[in-house]
From TrEMBL:
SMART domains: RasGEF (SM00147). GO terms for cellular component: plasma membrane. This is Guanine nucleotide exchange factor. Keywords: Guanine-nucleotide releasing factor. It comes from Lutzomyia longipalpis. The keyword Transport does not apply. Residues 242-375 form the N-terminal Ras-GEF domain.
């Protein structure tokens, strides 16, 4: 009720020329929510219903276990089901206005007016879930739903049954099961080799977003073949699609799907996903050997047909094959550090040149580019080795020329003498981060989680499982020559930066200087945050939170720590780093539409990225219960790694200061024990635990 309405109400009771002394307005809001699943209302109370309500309120899918209970009750384990899901949200807002007219404390009149607003939102979805079927005339191939839930964390929902087309390919309305020669048709008249560009990474995420998010722990899927006086359909030639996306297949079928023909070329997204995760099952050199063998069979087939030279089919095959090798070299060049791999690649390209001499220049450019990248990698790894040796030498000299930790600190140069401006320091940290990122091969993430010598998973026992390790091993997956050295060195850089932060603070005996260094690093961390350099940001925050630094209460009392508290909140590990993940999404959004090179930088908190990939690898089985490869997992791994690839390709736009970068990577740092001893000397231990710790450290130092 507005002022005029209120005045009219009072005047109708008391007459004209009244003065309103006081006015009080109250309102009441009532809301009602109704969730209907398969036509059955679900009350939003209790623990399970609260979980559904919380998920819907935040725009997320409700927990799979709750949805599975409903699906199991509908009979999904026994037969195809029709799944109808509708969501209706009704809200009623009641505005109650009460007017009480009083004079001298005596109520003369009371009036009530209510205004009610009803809002209703309804959405519905209908799906038919059926077993995947496969049939080739006159053989019968049926695919049924078993009674045992799948152990796979990411597996395939059943799709509709399929029909066979005239060309021998099977199709479905909700999914597809096709022979291994199906795929996307290429341009048979092209005359140049297309070089893969970074755009194939940029649009990968949009395609993988369409990968169906299936309910984890669905019913087990198995394939039964029935003989009908004819030869059965070979199980190794079946590719399973859902909504046009490949979700499962035998390993041999995936290899066949990778081989180009005269009128077919595999999608770049499929190639990246399979080349990335296929090494979980066989070495890259073995994969290349199989692909070359299948390519030879395709060429021989065309030659036997006798018309290859006439219609250009053979020429098209070899051109597509060189294009396949070019994409492999572009996306996973480190695979070709293996001498056997390189030799095989040269042999197959020479065969292609023999069939089509016009490919000679393309192959020469391909080899030149590959050799250049591998040479650059070798020089970088040699640089890392020299860097490690120089750092070790400086640390040894530091220990030899000092008798106490305090003397050791005085020999460490102050970072502010090299770089007084924390913003410039943040720029140089970004240079180091992007350089080190650029040398990490995408396959290193998968190799880090593989055992050094996995068993042969090509068999038909269907017992393949996810092999992983809780740490980053020094060896590669599937025995590859390419190891995870670049990934490991990047993790070591994070640790080094954290210890450098702590070392630079404790080297100062005066509290005022320690306060100055703390605020210096906080400002550098703030600039890293603004840039999008989250890895350096977290390393600095970790250094400031190390025990020898965090315990300096008298020093922290003089620090303007409000800015640091904001940074700590952004990198808070609670709720699985939810604050950081939200900030990262904002940085990615800024980068995607940025025209300024400075706004395109996204350097993720690397340890968390590795952790996410590790748990994705651990949580999803490599094979489904029926023995097929769980390609949905491949899509998910490829999606995250592709995003990383796009981040590491960004050029650093800031001016480079070689002397600062050299200092950041080579200056000596103190060990954790030395840092603790110096910290106790700066501010004496206050509790028994710290006193015992200090006593132990001094004893160990004197014994050495």
């Amino acid at each position: 009720m507005d002022e005029q309405d209120l005045l009219k109400t009072v005047e109708s009771v008391l007459g004209k020329n009244c003065v309103i002394v006081d006015c009080e307005t109250t309102s009441t809001v009532r809301e009602e929510e109704v969730l209907t699943i398969n036509g059955v209302p679900v009350r939003l109370d209790g623990n399970e219903q609260d979980a559904i309500k919380t998920a819907l309120s935040s725009g997320q899918v409700p927990p799979c276990e709750l949805l599975n209970q409903i699906l199991y009750q509908a009979g999904i384990l026994r037969q195809p089901v029709r799944l109808e899901t509708s969501l209706s949200i009704k809200s009623s807002i009641v505005h109650t206005e009460e007017v009480s007219v009083a004079r001298d404390g005596r109520i003369l009149d009371e009036r009530v007016r209510e205004k009610k607003e009803n809002n209703c939102y309804t959405s519905s979805c209908t799906e038919i879930w059926e077993p995947v079927g496969s049939r080739r005339q006159p053989a019968k191939v049926t695919q049924k739903l078993g009674d045992t839930p799948s152990s796979s964390g990411c597996s395939i929902p059943p799709a509709s049954s399929c029909k066979l087309t005239a060309d021998g390919r099977s199709t479905t309305s909700a999914g597809t099961i096709s022979n291994s020669d199906s795929g996307h048709h290429g341009n048979t008249s092209r005359t140049t080799i297309r070089t893969p560009s970074s755009s194939c990474y940029d649009d990968f995420s949009s395609a993988t977003e369409e990968t169906p998010n299936f309910i984890k722990a669905p019913p087990q899927v198995s394939v039964d073949q029935h003989q009908d006086n004819q030869e059965d359909l070979a199980p190794n030639s079946v590719l399973v699609y859902r909504d046009g996306i490949l979700v499962a297949a035998p390993l041999e079928a995936l290899i066949q799907h990778m081989v180009p023909t005269s009128d077919y070329y595999p999608e770049q997204k499929f190639l990246f996903a399979f080349l990335l995760s296929g090494r979980l099952f066989l070495k890259p050199v073995d994969l290349l050997a199989k692909v070359c063998h299948l390519g030879d069979l395709e060429q021989k087939k065309l030659q036997l047909e006798g018309r290859a030279r006439d219609d250009g089919k053979l020429t098209c095959v070899v051109r597509n094959f060189v294009q396949l090798i070019a994409e492999w070299v572009e996306t996973f060049p480190y695979d070709f550090r293996d001498e056997q791999m390189m030799m095989m690649m040269k042999q197959v390209t020479q065969k292609c040149i023999a069939c089509d001499p016009r490919l000679r220049r393309d192959v020469a450019n391909l080899l030149q580019t590959l050799v250049g990248r591998l040479t650059k990698l070798e020089r970088y790894e040699e640089f890392l080795e020299r860097l490690g040796q120089q750092e070790l030498s400086q640390t040894t000299d530091l220990q030899q020329h000092s008798t106490t930790p305090s003397e050791m600190c005085q020999l460490v140069q102050d970072v502010t003498d090299i770089c007084p401006n924390p913003t410039i320091l943040a720029y140089q940290l970004t240079h180091i981060e992007l350089e080190r990122l650029s040398y990490i091969g995408p396959e290193e993430f998968v190799q880090a989680f593989s055992k050094e010598n996995p068993p042969n998973l090509m068999g038909s026992d269907g017992s393949g499982t996810s092999h992983h390790s809780a740490h980053v091993p020094s060896g590669s997956g599937a025995g590859d020559v390419k190891k995870t050295r670049n990934l490991e060195s990047y993790v070591q850089w994070f640790n080094r930066l954290s210890y450098m932060v702590a070392t630079s603070i404790v080297r100062h005996g005066k509290k005022k200087q320690r306060v100055r260094l703390m605020e210096y690093w906080i400002e550098a961390a703030r600039e890293c945050f603004n840039i999008g350099n989250f890895n350096s940001l977290m390393a600095i925050v970790a250094g400031l939170n190390m025990s020898p630094i965090a315990r300096l209460k008298k020093t922290w009392a003089k620090v303007q720590s409000a800015k640091f508290s904001i940074l700590e909140h952004q990198m808070d590990p609670s709720s699985n780093f939810s604050s950081y993940r939200s900030t990262l999404k904002a940085a990615v959004w800024r980068s995607s539409g940025a025209t300024d090179e400075r706004q395109r930088i996204v350097i993720p908190f690397f340890s968390l990225l590795v952790k996410d990939l590790y748990f994705l690898n651990q949580g999803c089985s490599n094979r489904l219960p029926n023995g097929q490869i769980n390609f949905e997992k491949f899509w998910q791994l490829a999606k995250q790694v592709t995003e990383f690839v796009s981040w590491k390709q960004v050029r650093c736009p800031f001016e480079r200061h070689a002397n600062i970068i050299k200092f950041l990577q080579m200056s000596p740092i103190l060990t954790e024990n030395t840092l603790s001893m110096v910290s106790f000397e700066l501010e004496q231990p206050e509790n028994n635990h710290d006193k015992e710790r200090y006593k132990t450290l001094k004893s160990e130092h004197n014994n050495h």
